[in-house]
Amino acid sequence: MLLLLLLLFPFSASAEDQLNAGVVSGIWYSKFPFFAGETVRIYTAIQNNSGFDVKGKVQFLRNGESLEETPFSALKGGLVQVWADWEATEGTSNISARIVEAIPPVPNSFATAQHEVFVDMDTDNDNLGNLQDLDDDNDGLTDEKELVLGTDPLNPDTDLDGIKDSEDIIEEEPVSPKTFVSNIEAETEQFIGSIVQNLKEQKKQVEERIAANESQRPLLILPGIPQDAVPSRDNLESLALAAAITALGQWKIILILLGGIILWKLFFGILLGGPRQA
């Protein structure tokens, strides 16, 4: 903490050059650090080492503009503390204090003290200035990330929908070709699986019908062939369903074979120069 003492050395009222008055530099504040928008108290102190009582005002200034004038009265040999309240503003401020309207007079060149202070914003009130705070609005996203996403780093709810930006934004990562193929494969597997499940249920119903009626009529009556040697409609349907279930279970192999056939036809079609003209 910096200490400001406006020190008045013993002086004679008969001549100003014999007042022997001077300033020991120092200004301090009611709290530090403080941030823009907060009201802080600026302090200084006047030490009267003369044989006379001194009274007057202390003018507090920011960047040369008056903030407040505070009256004081310092008895001989006494020390008085003087202050002014200031609503801090963002940026660099040169805070100064000087004695004015003093009786007896105090030379201006020796009755002034100053202090330069930088005041930062603290958007999320976490007692950490924005320049040091990696997440100014405390929404769970760093300021750097919000600049990339296009959200406001000083507003925890950019779109004002009542949900913090970190919970509101779904970050979509680019899908690699490998991931894309895997997704297609998984979706196809799920689709084929649902078809196979339906076919198994149909096959089960057919087998139940067959079991309930062992003497089913044959699909065709062929001369010279016993009827029990000709499969019934349900038997053929059961065989067809079993074949479909088996084939669908190997859909990847079938797909590869079909792709190979298509590529083979394309390759030889190009190699032979397309269809021959008559």
Supply the key terms.
278 residues, alpha+beta, Immunoglobulin-like, 3 domains, 4-stranded mixed β-sheet, 4-stranded antiparallel β-sheet, rod-shaped, disordered N terminus, secreted, calcium ion binding, transmembrane, TSP3_bac, transmembrane helix
Low-confidence stretches: 1-24
Termini Cα gap: 104 Å
- Could you spell the SSE succession in H and E letters? EEEEEEEEHHHHH
Helix segment count? 5
Would you count the extended β strands for me?
8
Using the CA coordinates, give the radius of gyration: 47 Å
Protein name: CARDB domain-containing protein
InterPro entries: TSP3_bac, TSP_type-3_rpt
Organism: Candidatus Wildermuthbacteria bacterium RIFCSPLOWO2_01_FULL_48_16
Keywords: Calcium, Membrane, Secreted, Signal, Transmembrane, Transmembrane helix
Detailed description of the structure:
With 278 residues, the chain is α+β, with helices and mostly antiparallel strands. The protein has 3 domains: 5-119, Immunoglobulins (Immunoglobulin-like), CATH 2.60.40.10; 129-172, no CATH class; 177-271. The chain has 5 helices and 8 strands; from the N terminus they run E-E-E-E-E-E-E-E-H-H-H-H-H. The strands form 2 sheets. Strands 1, 2, 3 and 6 form a 4-stranded mixed beta sheet that branches. Helix 3 (177-212) runs antiparallel to helix 4. The longest helix is centred in the last third of the chain and has 36 residues, at 177-212. It is rod-shaped and about 145 Å long. The N and C termini lie far apart (104 Å). The model is unreliable at 1-24 (pLDDT under 50).
